[in-house]
Amino acid sequence: MYWWGKQLSIGVISLFFLIFGIDLLISIYRLNSPHEFIMGFFAASLIILISAVGLLYPAVRIFTRLRTKNVDEDDSNQ
Fold first, then answer.
1. How far apart are CA 18 and CA 51, in angstroms?
2. Residue 44 and residue 25 in contact, taking contact as beta carbons nearer than 8 Å
3. I need a surface site. Which of 15, 18, 35, 46 has the fewest CB within 10 A?
4. Are 57 and 13 in contact (CB under 8 A)?
């Protein structure tokens, strides 16, 4: 049960930061200073990249666990 909660919490936190990064990226386009735009653009892109990895990590772990569980069930039936 702890494992599922950990994966779910990582996914939810990553989803929050993905939405935050996209919102930040949209708001960056309203800036007038080129220096602030470049710094904000790279910061928002990094937030989006890290949160995307944070969403993929639990998805791959859950898929692998379910796939392994199905293989174990098929082997035990034979």
1. 5
2. yes
3. 35
4. no
Q: Are 78 and 44 in contact (CB under 8 A)?
A: no
Nearest residue to 58 (alpha-carbon basis) of 15, 8, 18, 2 = 8
- Nearest Cα to Cα of residue 51 among 8, 5, 15: 15
Question: Considering Cα of 9, then 10, then 11, then 17, what sign does the dihedral take?
Answer: positive
Helix (H, G, I), strand (E, B) or coil at 39: helix
Tokens 């993905």 label which residue?
A: 18
Q: Quick one: pLDDT band at residue 70, thresholds 50, 70, 90? A: confident
Domain ranges of the chain: 2-69
**pTM score, whole prediction:** 0.79
Which three-class secondary structure state does DSSP give residue 60?
Answer: helix
Q: Spell out the residues 6+ positions from residue 77 whose beta carbon is closer than 8 angstroms to its own.
A: none
